[in-house]
Amino acid sequence: MAEHSNITTHGAVPHGGGQVSAEQAADHGASQRKIIWRTFWILLGITSVEFLLAFTMKRGVFLTGIFVLLTLVKAFYIVGEFMHLKHEVKSLIWSIVMPVVFIMWLILALLIEGGSILQVR
């Protein structure tokens, strides 16, 4: 039985059965590394801002709100970048994002209402 392989002599695996040259594979690898490093620096920047705020601002509702907002920004960026959601059609993105936003709103509303029950006589 003959062994069939889609791997070229350069070690690159082609998409769609076509041949991929070593130069194309290297270019693709370089662009992927550039995207990963850009993502790293963006997430590091947001985390650094969170870290700075944690030690410079007074504790309170405002600081907690900033932390929640920055954490959500990082979460949506990670989902978009690493789960490739930003490359999908807009209707799929909205069908995933809108329920998440509504659930977060529901949790916030329940927390506010749950806290106000203690003031009711």
From TrEMBL:
Region annotated Disordered, chain positions: 1-20
User: Per the database entry, which stretches of residues form a coiled coil?
Assistant: none
Species for this entry: Catalinimonas alkaloidigena
**Does the UniProt entry include the keyword Magnesium?**
no
Localization annotation: Cell membrane
Supply the InterPro entries for this chain.
Cyt_c_oxidase_su4_prok
List residues traversing the bilayer. Answer: 35-55, 61-80, 92-112
Q: Which UniProt keywords apply?
A: Cell membrane, Membrane, Transmembrane, Transmembrane helix
For membrane topology, the record states: Multi-pass membrane protein
GO terms for cellular component: plasma membrane
Q: What is this protein called?
A: Cytochrome c oxidase subunit IV
